[in-house]
From TrEMBL:
Main location class: membrane
Its membrane topology: Multi-pass membrane protein
Recorded superkingdom: Bacteria
Pfam families membership: AI-2E_transport (PF01594)
Protein name stated in the entry: AI-2E family transporter
Keyword presence, Nucleus: no
UniProt keywords, alphabetically: Membrane, Transmembrane, Transmembrane helix
InterPro entries (alphabetical): AI-2E-like
Protein family: Belongs to the autoinducer-2 exporter (AI-2E) (TC 2.A.86) family.
Localisation per UniProt entry: Membrane
Transmembrane regions: 41-71, 91-110, 122-141, 161-187, 238-261, 273-296, 316-339
């Protein structure tokens, strides 16, 4: 009997297994969330850099308004120690007294100082020409038309530095904007604190309020110290130059007091003007101007500034100068004006954040077993 061939069943074809990978809309996947967070950080950093470059001047005006608000808030708090009235009335009184004093000062001394400004410009130009001619006679710089070229380059640098408020109208508009912003913030500071804190997670808001109080405390004392230094240098320079018979003593005292708000750079600028005007009147007046400059600056540096630094935040002079140069190059005259307060805010923020992190780490170690 013939055996039938056995048919073997065909093997089923292999099924290709395809594993789906999470797409960019699968936010529940940890990998996607992690990559999205990284991309968001880099994108946010790029947008922040672009925003700072494009919106440099408005940012400086906002910062200036905040600094002016600190001035008003400090005066309001100080007035509250002697006048137990509502904060709004104290703020209005500070504004009236402050602007009244400034207006009275310029009204009383305006005619004399305005007449002296043109004389000061002529004296500085004449002394600069003499100095360049003396340097050329020693072979330190080229002679001829290059002297005027050097002067034009210096004036061009000053023009670039003041490009943010290049005209009188622009300067007035910028000042008005900062004043209005400062008054609004000083009127209701807690409203703006809560507005910024609302954009933060709940777990970080208490830390934000503590950091804001510390920065405000530091800035109030720093700016109050700047006012004391301005008053000391301005009045001291005016009195001593008047005693020595140096012309335009009141104008030089006013300029020295205003420039005292700028550490390092302001002192150098006022000193150059003071010595130039002194030597224009004679050798003895020029030497007296040098003595006055070093006396006032050293008294401020070794008496006023150390006391202020102990009460606020100690900033290294080289660090302040570097910050001024950087802010002046990036943001012009407004950056130069606000470099010192911005540096103080950055330092206080970094110190407080590191201190809070150390406290949290110590608490975590204390709670950990073993």
């Amino acid at each position: 009997m013939a055996r039938r061939p056995v048919r073997r069943a065909k093997a089923a074809p292999a099924v290709e297994v395809h594993i789906e990978q999470p797409g960019p809309t699968e936010f529940s996947d940890p990998f996607v969330r992690r990559e999205l967070a990284r991309a968001s950080v880099w994108l946010g950093l790029a947008l922040a850099i672009i925003g700072v470059i494009v919106l440099a001047q408005p940012l400086m005006l906002i910062i200036g308004g905040m600094i002016f608000a600190v001035f008003l808030d400090g005066g309001t708090r100080l007035l509250g120690r002697v006048l137990p009235i509502r904060r709004g009335f104290r703020l209005a009184l500070v504004i009236i007294l402050g602007f009244g004093f400034v207006g009275w000062t310029f009204y009383i001394a305006g005619t004399t100082i305005a007449a002296q400004f043109e004389a000061l410009r002529a004296v500085v130009e004449a002394q600069f020409t003499k100095l360049m001619a003396f340097a050329a006679s020693l072979g330190l710089i080229p002679t001829g038309n290059s002297l005027s070229n050097i002067g034009q380059q210096l004036l061009g640098s000053v023009g670039r530095l003041t490009s943010a408020v290049g005209t009188a109208l622009g300067a007035f508009a910028s000042l008005l904007v900062m004043i209005v912003i400062g008054i609004f913030i000083a009127a209701e500071p807690r409203l703006y604190d809560r507005g910024v804190a609302w954009m933060l997670p709940l777990r970080h808001r208490e830390r934000f309020y503590a950091l804001g109080d510390k920065i405000g405390w530091t800035l109030r004392r720093l700016l109050f110290g700047r006012l004391i230094a301005m008053l000391f240098e301005g009045v001291g320079t005016w009195l001593l130059l008047t005693i020595g018979g140096v012309p335009m003593a009141a104008l030089l005292g006013l300029i020295t007091g205003l420039l005292a708000f700028l550490p390092n750079i302001g002192a150098i600028t006022s000193g150059v003007l003071m010595v130039a005007v002194g030597f224009s009147a004679g050798t003895s007046e020029g030497l007296w101007a040098i003595v006055v400059y070093f006396f006032v600056q050293n008294a401020d540096a070794y008496l006023v500034v150390p006391y202020i630094a102990r009460k606020t935040v100690d900033l290294a002079p080289a660090l302040v100068l570097a910050m001024q140069l950087l802010m002046g190059a990036l943001f012009g005259i407004l950056g130069l004006l606000f470099a010192d307060p911005i540096l103080a805010m950055l330092k206080v923020s970094l110190v407080e954040l590191s201190r809070q992190r150390a406290v949290e780490d110590a608490a975590a170690e204390a709670q950990s077993p073993g």
